[in-house]
Amino acid sequence: MIVAKPGSDVLDYDVLLTIPQAGAVALSWRPDEGVPWSARYADHWAANFVLSVNDQPTTIQSALIYLSARLKRRPDLMRELVDRSLTFAAMQETPPEIGDAELESAIDAFRRAQGLFTGVATQAWLDDMQLTMESLEGLVAESLQLQKFKDAITDAAKVRSYFATHRSDFDRLTVMRLEGLTRRSARDVADRWRRRGVCPVFDGRKAPLQSPTGRLDTSFACDLPPELAAEPVNAVIGPVSGGKTLWVAQVLGRSAARFDGATRERIGRQLFEAWLADKRSTASIRWHWV
């Protein structure tokens, strides 16, 4: 029997010997550097399943798509898996060292975060998650190594240098924004807002809105829409498109950037995101939907 692989010129050569009332024996031939098809395509029946409940399986693909749709706070779950793979691959080149005391402290912190204050509660949680204590220690150790790896990429010197060259990005702006407006209501709100200098929804008069969504936030300039980031205090911006609806906003306050803990943390995330983006741009990524 000669079998051609789909989309390939490579052939597999097999002789099937039927044994009555017993089955069949396959004799395969491959070149020295080849792998027989029976080994190459052998797979576990549940290789594409991530979960089975009452014999109802969930495939890896459907689980990822479901989680991506449900986790609105982190919608790009599949990209996060890619980022995790890239990070761990780079980290394994020079794994950060972790001491026994450091690991024990991290495990204690993990148990407290999960509300596992006794050995019995911890074991029940491990049983429920189908983990062993050794596997939990491995997961916590990986998390520690990952944090140390990130810290090395975003060390203090890099963070301070970035702040010096992008200082205005970290001004803090207090902004009132009305979202979910139709085109007509957005124009009316913007006109009234500019004339009065006060958001028309909150000035005691009837506004041309039925159910506006108001947000009062203080954010770094770099985390705001570009239409807002550079505007002076009291400026009214909009209408601006926000997908199918429009928004109108006013800058209520601006404070100059300061190199405090929140700013250092935000810069660290930005530097690490830039590192990941560079890694993704050269990575070969393939999703295996079996």
Describe this entry's structure for a reader.
It is built from 10 helices and 9 strands. With 290 residues, it is of the alpha+beta class. The longest helix is centred in the last third of the chain and has 22 residues, at 261-282. The strands form 3 sheets. It has a 4-stranded antiparallel sheet. A 3-stranded antiparallel sheet has the order 1-2-3, with no helix packed on it. Strands 4-5 form a two-stranded antiparallel ribbon. The chain has 4 domains: 2-40, no CATH class; 76-153, no CATH class; 156-165 and 260-282, no CATH class; 172-255, no CATH class. Mean pLDDT is 81; it is low at 203-211. Strand 4 and strand 5 (56-59) form a beta hairpin.
Brief digest:
With 290 residues, the protein is of the alpha+beta class.
Would you spell out the secondary-structure blueprint of this structure?
Layout: E1 2-4, E2 11-19, E3 23-29, H1 37-40, E4 49-53, E5 56-59, H2 60-70, H3 77-91, H4 100-113, H5 119-129, H6 133-153, H7 156-165, E6 172-181, H8 183-196, E7 213-220, H9 226-229, E8 236-242, E9 245-255, H10 261-282
Antiparallel strand pairs: 1-2, 2-3, 4-5, 6-7, 6-9, 8-9
